[in-house]
Structure formats: C-alpha cells, structure tokens
Amino acid sequence: MYKDTGRVPATVIDNLIDLALKEDVGKGDVTTDILIPARLKTHAILLAKSEGVLAGVDVARRVFRRLEPAVMFKVFIKDGGALKPGDIIAEISGRARTILTGERTALNFIQRLSGIATQTREFVTAVGDLPVWIVDTRKTTPGFRLLEKYAVRMGGGRNHRLNLADGILIKDNHIALLRAQGMTLGEIILKARQGATQGVVVEVETTTLAQVREAAEACPDIIMFDNMTPAVMRRAMKLLPEGIWSEASGGVNLETVRRIAESGVTVISVGALTHSAAALDISLELVSNRK
Question: Which of 1, 104, 117, 173 is the most exposed place for a label (fewest CB within 10 A)?
Fold first, then answer.
C-alpha cells in the first residue's frame, strides 16, 4: 500500500513531453522561426529564483533533446537537492531555436515537480522528529501520476498506492452501499480479506470511534482515521490491536500536521502534496550568443 513507485520509465516521460510540446508548439514556433536564424547557437542556464527542493531536471533535459538530440545539458544540482535564489541548476547549449521553443515546456515540468517536492519537504520537516510517514494520494494531475509521485519522493515523502490495483481501500461509499445490503463493517472487511490475493493489503476508512472499534475487531491491515481531530485520533489509537497500522487523512495542512502526528498514527496522507502545490520559481536565462 505504501511503496516506492519506482523509476519513471523513459517512455512515460517522453510521451508526456511529446503531448506537452504538441500542445505548446502547435504547428510551429512562428515568432522564433521568423526572427531567429536557424544556425544561431546560444547558451542558457536554468536559474532558481526561490528556495525549494529540485525535481524534474532530467525531464527538462529530455524536453530539449526531443527537439535537438545533440543539445548539451550540464546538470549542477540533482533532483532532491536544496535550492536557494541564484543557484544555477543546469547549463544548456545548442541551437537558439531549440532553447527558445522548448523553454516553456521544460519550465512547466520542472517548476511543477519542484513545487511538489518543496511542499512535501515542508510537511516532512514539520514532523521530522516523530515516527510517522508523510504519504501522497491519488489526487494527481491526470496522466502525470508517476512523475508527481516521483516528486513527492524527492521531497522526502512516500507513495500511497499508485492505482486501484495496488491495494484494497474500503472507503465510505463502499461501506454505505454494502451496509444498505445488510452487511456489517466486520463482514465487509472479512469479504475483502477473502477476495484479496496473497500480499494485497486491506485498509478500511473510519470516521468515528465506534467504526474504529468495529473495524479493529475484524483486523484489517490498516485503519484510516478520516477527518478526525487529533484528540479523537489519540483515543482511536488505544482501540487498535498490535500490528494494525493507522493512517490519518483529511484536514491535513502545515498548521495541523504536527498535532496529528503527535496522536501516534503510523502514516499521514496529504492530498495537498500533489493537488495544491504551487510551482517553484525557476527561470531560463540566456547567457551568451555565439555563432
């Protein structure tokens, strides 16, 4: 349920880049093609304009190389590295048309992913001395899940399930439908366990202490405390048998995350890591032109 989603396949990245370039360039960069000589070469840098955590520098490199395979791209700061204003992330040398045409697409990727990594690092730092994991959710940009979950890892977070096949998570709507069929929460959990293949984790969402008590009797692998206050979570933790993990979800922000962590939960899932991260301020600046 909580695992490293692994290296993002190059084919996934290149497909996203091709879609992004098609969207941004359209039938051609008419401004650049009219004004800039085809043989003119230039040198540029990717420059950090604010503090944060870097993610996506290799994606930016691949953007330019999709346009010009021979473009030179020298990395000075690797993904996961800390940034401060004025840091040079990378140098780019190649045809001026390539750099100007690819600029916005490359920046869109690296700014978005670095924003996610930066926000994740803030949450991780806020609970850094406590034995709890900060994990993401499936609240990602459609098509960009692998990259966005990669950015979470670069910020020090962990990944929740990648997709619906990665684990059984019995949520409120599942429970409502099955309770309407006369099933108890314990019976729902038992049905999930009986249908799960070996190694598949069973997690159940709860919103009240009564539900926690009922779920604990059926011994799922993980019990989620959804939108509970830290005080209620502390009481809920006392109801869990040894070996059952706990996950806090809902209402998590930088003001509340530490109080939630102090309740003793194992995991805190934060949708905002991916759905609300602000892009990090990174720019591309031309340094010199040379024929």
Answer: 173
Q: What are phi and psi of 204, to 5 degrees?
A: -135, 140
pLDDT (0 to 100) of residue 289: 52
CATH for 77? 3.90.1170.20
Among 58, 79, 221, 226, which one carries the catalytic annotation? Answer: 226
* pLDDT tens digits for range 196-225: 999 999 999 999 999 999 999 999 999 999
**Active site (annotated) includes residue 41:** no
Q: Provide mean pLDDT across the span 15-39.
A: 97
Active site residue 22: no
Does residue 5 fall inside a structural domain? no
Q: Domain check: are 139 and 271 in the same one?
A: yes
If one counts every other C-beta atom within 10 angstroms of the C-beta of residue 159, the result is 23
- For 233, the domain range is 125-275
Q: Is residue 177 part of a domain?
A: yes
2 domain residue, yes or no: no
Domain presence at residue 44: yes
Annotated catalytic residue 121: no
Catalytic residue chosen out of the listed positions 74, 171, 179, 235 = 171
- Same domain? For 246 and 259 the reply is yes
The CATH code of the domain that includes 143 is: 3.20.20.70
Q: Which amino acid appears at position 278 of this protein?
A: A
**Report field, pTM of the whole predicted structure over 0.70:** yes
153 exposure class (CB count in 10 Å sphere: 0-12, 13-18, 19+): buried
The predicted-structure confidence for 77-107, as pLDDT tens digits, reads as follows 999 999 999 999 999 999 999 999 999 999 9
- pLDDT tops 50 at residue 252: yes
Q: Which of 58, 87, 148, 205 is catalytic?
A: 205
